[in-house]
Amino acid sequence: MLKENKKIIAVEKPEGDGAVVKRLFPTVYHNHFDPFVLIDEFFVEAPNEFAPHEHSGFEAISYMLGGAFRHEDNQGNEEEVDQGGLQTFNAGKGIVHSEAPGTAGYAHGMQIWVNLPSEMKESKPEYQALNPENVPVQEKENVIIRSLIGPGSPVKLKTELLLQDITLVKGGSYNIQLSDKMHGIIYVIDGIIETEKKLNEGEALLLTSKASIEIKTLADESRFIFMAGKPHGQKIKIEGSHVL
């Protein structure tokens, strides 16, 4: 159990057929953060891809930071989502899918695995997509908030979750106040931000329940992902591409 906010750094590694990821966890340095099982920032250019493979026991989110991504699975779903859009699936009792760069020829994004409650491990697989034009956007002075999952978003998961893409322009700030029922993560995509610790690109801060954080940019512009999820309080066991 995390007793205080913890800074961790993503590890770059090859993945799939010619893809590269910055993996926040699981690594030798940090395993998981209930309910989050895996967090990757991925980079893949055609003809490289993530060839067909099977998953079970969790929900996956792919959020496009650049380019486009094409998802195809054995449930009959086949769709391409552009930059700013999102795809998610409940692997449930088992799904076979592939992912590849779309018409843009490259894909840069975040992939997040969220553990399923134990009673839903054998649920029927499901797929959802959110196109960029349907993402709720809120613009304040020097702050842009894209609400991908949570209030205002049509995406619904089996776990209570909040996912935001936030851009801070110099002079802007963003405040996070977690409830006692949520764990949070701040992950920097571009720029440098200041919280209780300075975070550069590819670095993250794991937030305990009840964390109270003010975020400021130390660059002219910084972009980060904020996610928060309700822990299940159950053991997380990963076997390859399956979460038991």
TrEMBL record:
Its cofactor is Fe cation. InterPro entries: Pirin, Pirin_C_dom, Pirin_N_dom, RmlC-like_jellyroll, RmlC_Cupin_sf. CDD domains: cupin_pirin_C, cupin_pirin_N. GO terms for molecular function: metal ion binding. Residues 165-243 form the Pirin C-terminal domain. It comes from the Bacteria. This is Pirin family protein.
